[in-house]
Amino acid sequence: MAKALDAPYEAGRRGSAWLKIKVAHSLDLVVLAAEWGSGRRRGWLSNLHLGARDPTGGFVMLGKTFKGLTDEMLAWQTERLEALAIAREGHVVHVRPELVVEIAFNELQTSRRYPGGLALRFARVLRYRPDKRAEEADTIDTVRAIAATTSRSSSSARMPSA
């Protein structure tokens, strides 16, 4: 948290002079599937299913995001993902894991939904990485190391309860 220097301090209150500052991390992940959009994104593959590379083979899903995509990116990725499609399941199009995308996120949380036991929080697309192959994407071990580091730093910053 940060507060304007000239703003008064009020115990137990956070006003408009306070700003919550979150540290963003980024990972290069692989697109495993995408969902057809709705509303303004109807007709475009929008919600990306993201996975980290498993060093023992395959990919481990960490979550989904549709944030950070421009109309130009949506059009490009719809065409590209349609070309990579290997299966369709309702509104989900599963693709060959070839596209690497740089994802920014604020936190990792434990998850029972995803096999790796972790999920991205506040994930958003920064850019596609045509310079990287899926074999060069970040691994689940890298993700776990970030989770261990951030959970230690955030837990040590908490005040003890009374």
Topology record:
Layout: E1 2-3, E2 18-19, E3 25-36, E4 45-53, E5 59-65, H1 71-84, E6 85-89, E7 92-95, E8 100-105, E9 107-110, E10 118-121, E11 124-128, H2 140-156
Antiparallel strand pairs: 1-2, 3-4, 3-7, 3-8, 4-5, 6-7, 8-11, 9-10
Helix content: 10-25%
User: Could you tell me the radius of gyration in angstroms?
Assistant: 19 Å
What integer is the average pLDDT?
87
The helix/strand series, from N terminus to C terminus, equals EEEEEHEEEEEEH
Q: What is the CA-CA span between the terminal residues? A: 21 Å
Strand content: 35-45%
Unreliable residue runs: 153-162
What about the largest sheet?
7 strands, antiparallel
Count of helical segments? 2
Number of strands: 11
Form type: globular
Strand-pairing-aware structural class = alpha+beta
Structure write-up:
It is built from two helices and eleven strands, in the order E-E-E-E-E-H-E-E-E-E-E-E-H. The protein has helices spanning 71-84, 140-156, and strands spanning 2-3, 18-19, 25-36, 45-53, 59-65, 85-89, 92-95, 100-105, 107-110, 118-121, 124-128. The strands form three sheets. Strands 3, 4, 5, 6, 7, 8 and 11 form a seven-stranded antiparallel β-sheet that branches. It has a two-stranded antiparallel ribbon with strand order 1-2. Strand 9 (107-110) and strand 10 form a beta hairpin. The longest helix is centred in the last third of the chain and has 17 residues, at 140-156. The protein is globular, with a radius of gyration of 19 Å. The chain starts with a strand and ends in a 6-residue tail after the last helix.
